[in-house]
């Protein structure tokens, strides 16, 4: 099938918010949803989307508070809110069952979605997003007080701005030294909006970084993971800041999962080792005969 080089921008409503997603075309093919991570955007997936688009109807949403989606009113960015938004995207596209690929926060959302609605996910791939949170180290009253202080701090802080796109790209490169200049500029171009004074600011809402005192526990995650009914692939970067010796032990919480480590990759596997990630995706998705 003909490959779409640029996606169409589409929108849908969720909890009163207008949310954006990139539609890469090929609507008669099996649907595949790419979910980005925190402080990222849907166009972070472009290279992966182009590689898979000839075989799938690829949809890449901007999570609420990210990219070209609206910001939540009242700083509501819980995992459950994101899960609701993904469910709304599938409903808007009349999709009953989809393959889901998520990175970091997007992987956590994919895991929770597949555990909540096992019949809606045919295959699941998580890029450096499978981990169990540690129990809170402080009492609940201190957690709430810290949350309030963090919200106040963000409210009083000045937004970061850049004079040029190149400055924003340099910031991206400083965050991930493995990025090529072309990758950094691409991510910056789709990750900033132009201000009235001609400067640029990140599109993501700073409030989405707040750690609310009502997060899921490790037991909650395990309960959801145990309900996942589809084949699952957990990809890890061997140089990720999330790396740890117990990661492969996570497999015991799944009914049918496998893990693979990408050498020379940090947390952003699909930027650091694109060819290896695409090869792993193609191999895993070929299990069901979906890659020709």
TrEMBL record:
<keyword id="KW-0378">Hydrolase</keyword>
<protein>
    <submittedName>
        <fullName>Alpha/beta hydrolase</fullName>
    </submittedName>
</protein>
<dbReference type="InterPro" id="IPR000073">
    <property type="entry name" value="AB_hydrolase_1"/>
</dbReference>
<dbReference type="InterPro" id="IPR029058">
    <property type="entry name" value="AB_hydrolase_fold"/>
</dbReference>
<feature type="domain" description="AB hydrolase-1">
    <location>
        <begin position="30"/>
        <end position="273"/>
    </location>
</feature>
<dbReference type="GO" id="GO:0016787">
    <property type="term" value="F:hydrolase activity"/>
</dbReference>
<dbReference type="InterPro" id="IPR000639">
    <property type="entry name" value="Epox_hydrolase-like"/>
</dbReference>
<dbReference type="Pfam" id="PF00561">
    <property type="entry name" value="Abhydrolase_1"/>
</dbReference>
């Amino acid at each position: 099938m003909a490959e779409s080089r640029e996606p169409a921008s589409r929108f849908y409503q969720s909890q009163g918010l207008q949310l954006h997603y990139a539609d890469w075309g090929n609507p008669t093919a099996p649907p595949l949803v790419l979910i980005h991570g925190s402080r990222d955007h849907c166009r972070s997936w472009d290279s992966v989307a182009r590689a898979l688009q000839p075989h799938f109807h690829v949809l890449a949403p901007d999570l609420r508070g990210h990219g070209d989606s609206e910001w939540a009113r009242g700083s509501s960015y819980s995992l459950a809110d994101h899960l609701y938004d993904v469910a709304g995207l599938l409903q808007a596209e009349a999709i009953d069952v989809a393959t889901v690929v998520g990175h970091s926060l997007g992987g956590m959302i994919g895991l929770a979605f597949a555990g909540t609605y096992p019949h809606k996910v045919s295959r699941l791939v998580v890029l450096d997003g499978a981990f169990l949170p540690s129990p809170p180290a402080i009492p609940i009253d201190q957690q709430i007080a810290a949350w309030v202080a963090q919200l106040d701090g963000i409210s009083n802080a000045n937004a970061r701005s850049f004079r040029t796109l190149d400055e924003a790209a340099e910031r991206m490169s400083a965050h991930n030294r493995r990025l090529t200049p072309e990758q950094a500029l691409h991510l910056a171009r789709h990750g900033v909006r132009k201000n009235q004074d001609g400067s640029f600011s990140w599109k993501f809402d700073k409030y989405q970084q707040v750690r609310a005192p009502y997060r899921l526990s490790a037991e909650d995650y395990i309960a959801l993971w145990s309900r996942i009914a589809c084949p699952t692939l957990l990809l890890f970067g061997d140089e990720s800041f999330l790396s740890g010796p117990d990661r492969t032990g996570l497999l015991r919480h799944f009914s049918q999962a496998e893990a693979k480590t990408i050498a020379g990759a940090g947390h952003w596997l699909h930027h650091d080792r694109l060819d290896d990630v695409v090869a792993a995706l193609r191999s895993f998705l070929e299990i069901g005969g979906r890659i020709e």
